[in-house]
Amino acid sequence: MIVLKDLTKEFGKESNKVVALDNVSCELPQGKFISIVGKSGCGKSTLLNLIGGLEKPTSGSVIIDGVDLYAKKESELAYYRNKTIGYVFQDFYLEPELSVIDNVSVPLIIAGKKAQEISRLAQDRISALGLESKTNEPTKNLSGGQKQRVAIARALVADASIILADEPTGNLDSDNSSEVVAILRRLADEGKTVIMVTHNLEEARQADITVEMKDGKIVEIKDRQ
Ligand SMILES: Nc1ncnc2c1ncn2[C@@H]1O[C@H](COP(=O)(O)OP(=O)(O)OP(=O)(O)O)[C@@H](O)[C@H]1O
Ligand SMILES: [Mg+2]
After folding, report:
1. Cα dihedral 23/24/27/31 (nearest 10)
2. pTM of this prediction?
3. 204 alpha carbon to ligand 2 midpoint, in Å?
4. CATH code, domain carrying 95
5. Residue 181 · residue 203 · CB < 8 Å
């Protein structure tokens, strides 16, 4: 279970203050495909970043399977993030000059795995996402859909149980978008927790649960199951 308790995130001070997240509380089950929707600026990315342990809340807590993320020391939080959470972003965030396998290997290197294991695990993930023929290609030579699949492989390689995706189809055409959403759907069916921010309501509907946000608050949680 992912529990958000009185979660608030403010940016700026005094007259410049923006309340990006306004006292949000909810419980999200693990092992489901969850979509987050809402207008630009309503706080979707902020919420995702806080669930991902990437940004400290102004107040409140994020508790994942009983672990209070922001009660941890920064070094422990970094370790927890690398082990538990995989991130997939709109702009892929790959190293363009590095090969597919080197990009996918990054979380394993951080985790301190041995070279042989790194190469085996990375290659397995690359193959599972249909990118075998691109293994040694620099990622700058890949199509958008292929890049996003590399990013998904990287998010999964250290066996994260939670995949956070912020508009993962934002830079893709409709065929590649459908494929990426289908991959995320399948991951949830295999037991991963997938939380995806999207502007596309057709994509949002493929999730088990849709969280709708407005002005820094959750206004509706729709459970399709
Ligand atoms: N680092 C920051 N500094 C200042 N304000 C910020 C920062 N990050 C976000 N904000 C503000 O917080 C609010 C919520 O931003 P957020 O990025 O979470 O929105 P969003 O729902 O993801 O929007 P979009 O759909 O456009 O990506 C916005 O008003 C935004 O301007
Ligand atoms: Mg955003």
Report:
1. -140
2. 0.94
3. 15
4. 3.40.50.300
5. yes
Closest CA to 176 of 85, 90, 86: 90
**Residue pair 187/194 in contact by the 8 Å Cβ criterion:** yes
Q: How far is the CA of 32 from the centre of ligand 2 (A)?
A: 21
Q: How many domains does the chain have?
A: 1
Q: Long-range pairs for 172-177 at CB < 8 Å and ≥24 separation?
A: 172/144, 172/145, 172/148, 173/144, 173/145, 175/145, 176/143, 176/144, 176/145, 176/148, 177/203
CA of 148 to the centre of ligand 1 (A): 23
Q: Given the structure tokens 């399948």, which residue do they identify?
A: 186
List pLDDT tens digits, range 46-98. Answer: 999 999 999 999 999 999 999 999 999 999 999 999 889 999 988 888 999 99
Task: Look up the domain containing 101 and give its range.
Answer: 2-223
Place of tokens 């590095």: 98
- Whether 8 and 59 have beta carbons less than 8 Å apart is answered as yes
Residue nearest to atom 18 of ligand 1 (CA): 43
Ligand 1, atom 29: closest residue by C-alpha: 41
